Amino acid sequence: MQATTKLLLCETMSNPLLRVVDLRAMATECHRHGLKLVVDNTFATPVLTKPLTYGADLVLHSVTKYLAGHSDVTAGAVVARAAEDAARLRQIGIVFGLTLSPMESWLSVRGMKTMRLRVAAHSHNAQQVAEFLEVHPAVEAVYYPGLLTHPQHGLATMQGHGLFSGMLSFRLPDDAAVVNRFMQRSERFPFAPSLAGVDSSCSHPLYTSHRALTDEQRAELGITVGLVRLSVGIEPVEELLADLAHALS
Ligand SMILES: *Cc1c(COP(=O)(O)O)cnc(C)c1O
């Protein structure tokens, strides 16, 4: 924090290592310093966590992801606690043309009608995938807040009402050939930089979301070539587990 700092931006659960932020502690600290807390709640969704109830001032969502949920919309939302922030954002949206087309608005609203059901199904599948990967001999580590071994499992349980989303990461040996072999053999987790659609997908953070960082920054974050991120869909889970077993064999 510097004298010019006005707000602090965090994710409810970080991409791609699923570290969980204590939102209440973060909000308390921000307000003590006169800052606004902005929370990107894309991974958690309002089904798991409503950051405004923990003291956040603004909440961001990539509607592209779980809110619309079917990989057919590019949209975003920002929610404000204070009426004056909401009015200002509305004005900025109008002036800069950040408003959605009718088709995308309709698809987003239509998707949100099933969000609660989808996010529960994503979470249940991801829990089983995480437990499967955690004991698989080819896998070095699994990052999923639903696992008892996750360092913030307790906080995640409290902030997520016992659901942990469909996002998880795992570590293969740091060998591009091993990761490529996995990605080529998996049929149910096709490579896709986006996430959170009803169909499962997989991404390689080193070459996608985190490619712009320096080698030092990536090493500090633990984003190495062996790190794979899965977006677990709502397919029958036994099909996903069979596919992963095949891809890792
Ligand atoms: C994808 C994503 C964004 C960006 O959203 P778009 O709809 O793709 O522009 C922002 N935050 C998180 C956590 C995301 O996963």
UniProtKB/TrEMBL annotation:
Name one matching Pfam family.
Answer: Cys_Met_Meta_PP
Which UniProt keyword terms apply here?
Answer: Pyridoxal phosphate
Q: Which cofactor does it need?
A: pyridoxal 5'-phosphate
The UniProt family comment states: Belongs to the trans-sulfuration enzymes family.
What name is this protein filed under? Answer: Trans-sulfuration enzyme family protein
Natural source organism: Hymenobacter humi
